[in-house]
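Lab notebook, bench 4. The sequencing result for the construct came back, and we need a structural model before the next group meeting so we can plan mutations. Quick request posted to the team channel:

Model the 3D structure of this chain.
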Amino acid sequence: MATTRAPEDAYTAEPFVPEGADLPALRQAAAGCRGCPLHRAATQTVFGKGDPHARVMLVGEQPGDQEDRRGEPFVGPAGKLLDRALEEAGIDPADAYVTNAVKHFKFTQAEPRKRRIHKAPSLREMTACGPWLAAELALVEPELIVVLGATAGKALLGSSFRVGEVRGTVLEREIHGRPELLVPTVHPSSVLRAQGDEDRRAAYEGLVADLTVAARALR
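Done. Here's the predicted structure in token form:
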């Protein structure tokens, strides 16, 4: 007797993405996504948020612990740091659309009630979530995408992406069938992980410098 595969075994969100949906309908549909196994342990889907007609879209890796609990992207410490860096670079965070390449929190946990430790999503998991990001891009139609970190870069630009090689530069690429301008930079969480005040200050200044390139590209 043949066994029926669970939807998550196919590793694609495509069957869950409704055609012709606007952003609120997409967000509602994403709440029921079972396109990969990450939905099993996560609290909820964390969809993008922000100006639906934003000129700039910021794409990060995946939700963190606080984002998973609250259901919104970039509401933890990294999100607060990103907002500050955007303002310093001349981009109003309220005018941006923020999302993640992967919509569920992937983590390890030694035992129940212990802290949940972020774990980087695999290329297969990033690819599975790609249809959601493609749908967001098609609806928002940003003039510029800011790529936050290596995982977002690999999801958008392929597995050979290295953030250190192209950060702070304006790239022109076709993404999900659309010509896009992109500025890669580090993920703000990497600034928070920097050891010592001097290193953290330098990492933050580097992030602001990259975002300033993005702000200039929007003028």
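Strands lie at 49-50, 56-60, 96-100, 107-108, 117-118, 144-148, 171-175, 178-185.
Will bring this to the meeting.
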